[in-house]
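Prompt: For my understanding, could you write out one protein's sequence and backbone structure tokens?
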Amino acid sequence: MHQLTVIGLGAGDFEQLQMGVYRKLQQAKKIYVRTMDHPVLHELVAEGIQLESFDNIYEKHDDFRPVYEEIVATLLDYVEQEDIMYAVPGHPLVAELTIQLLIEAEKEGKVNLKIEGGQSFLDPIFGALRIDPIDGFQLVDGTTFSAHEVNMHHHLLIAQVYDTFSASEVKLTLMEKYREDYPVTIVTAAGSVGEKLRTVPLYELDRAAEIDNLTTVYVPPVANRDEALREWSTFREIISTLRGPNGCPWDQKQTHESLKRYILEEVHEFLQTIDEQDDEHMIEELGDVLLQVFLHAQIGEDEGFFNLEDILEAVSAKMIRRHPHVFGDITVENVEEVNANWEKIKNEEQAIDDTTKPLLNGEYRAASSLQTSYNYQRRAAKVGFDWPTTDGVWGKFVEEWQEFRVEVTNGTNETRLDEFGDVLFTLVNIARVYKISAEDAMLHANRKFARRFAYVEEQVMAGNKDFKAYTFEELDAFWNEAKNQEGE
């Protein structure tokens, strides 16, 4: 098998080229280069060294990936005939996808690969910017990176920013986390005699004239907490501080038990914003729900039982495990098959042993008696303990209602409580049969009552300003006005 030698041209001009690299280039009969757009290559051509570039392949494709794949395929064809040398900008193993593709080909036994030096652009970049990477830095590809990957507390270097369009894409991505006037530095030809640095506000990034294939964009770490409010680690730090020795007395004394009612309240308030279709309010209420999650995670960490990473690992693993049609090789045709798979996998995980574990274990919900009732009846129905028709469900409700009415007249507080509970239980079962969430229905009824009663209160305040001054019939008339305004 012939050998494909890869060599790096460095990040600077001809004067920065390493002597060993220069000698190898001189000795080569012919050199294939990814692109001629590098200052070293013009000097080599002037010395009579034969070069063949792949610049024409760039013109055939709209995306970089197919460009690099075609370059690699061409190199593999050439190396079948003879030993060849392939030269790339910088260091071959830094931000060079064609080399990564060649390494994959080597693992498959398709090529005998030899990779040799060449200074990467990182050293001159660090020197030009006067930064120490030990503080933490990220190197990302400007054509593919996502704002979700960016850590605002690290030095951020963005390569592959080669023209106005790519700079515009980078700008829009960064604006998902950074303010629009955040300072960014455009570094061009770092380490060469033509080195240029220009710091501009983020919104001007795509208007700079210096952008070319030797450009790297630098985004410095945020200077303070208030500039990193879109960073997950910032929120975690805030919660940790609130619970810490110098934090808030209220947050410090909270427990999982004391927070139970708050998480339920916040979820209900968020559900209301969904009904109202209020996006701004939805952001606020989702934040309140997230606050509860982080508080419970911090309490778990403070007590030494679990932390946020444990929660993330558990839920991520569950989502991957229960979606084999997405992350595995299972095929599904519709939502019904997805749900069937979900239940099957869930039952396998729980490994329920009918002889040792009660069926209703794990179905109790301390925060919602309605949800607990629904869970119990749903689980019982799955094993056949259910009315065969809806007539049986309605008949049971009528029976319990009649028993409750008898206790209202002749019973005690205890018997009334017992029979009224039976009535509610049968109502939840009716909701289950007709695929209605009893919890959502109750929330909806409460909101409707509050909305209509607010109208009644407005009318009272606009009149005599005292409820006692009105008869029930007058108040009920206000209520009916509110209903009529809602079209009911």
User: Anything to note?
Assistant: The domain at 123-227 is CATH 3.30.950.10 (Methyltransferase, Cobalt-precorrin-4 Transmethylase; Domain 2). The longest strand covers residues 3-8. The mean pLDDT is 89. The chain has five domains: 3-119, 123-227, 232-306, 352-436, 440-485.
